Amino acid sequence: MNEAHLEENLRLILDLGRVHEVAEGRINGRAAGVLLMPPYRTDIADFVEPGRNVIEVALTPVLHNRLVGYGETGDPRWGQFQNRNGLAPTGLIGPARLLPHWRERI
């Protein structure tokens, strides 16, 4: 990101598109927000620096998938989760985009 792009009235929106379930954004190692539901968007302008930037997204899937996995182990403690209707969708489906947004005073 060059310095000319970092105008005071420019906001940068990280739009993750479609996500199953929770996403946590980090920009240059700094926590930039936890996104719990659509729209999976957050303003990252305050975290972006001139030069190279690193965007990381960590996802937390639904508990259902973990429990189904336990059920498939054959352990009787998790038997109630055996042969469920498969796994729930999980992950970052996208498309992930950076959207410029200019704020104007009226």
From TrEMBL:
Native organism is: Tateyamaria omphalii
Superkingdom, natural source: Bacteria
Supply the name of the protein.
Uncharacterized protein
Record InterPro entries: Galactose-bd-like_sf (IPR008979), Ulvan_degrading_GH (IPR053161)
Q: Which PANTHER family match?
A: DNA-BINDING PROTEIN (PUTATIVE SECRETED PROTEIN)-RELATED, SECRETED PROTEIN
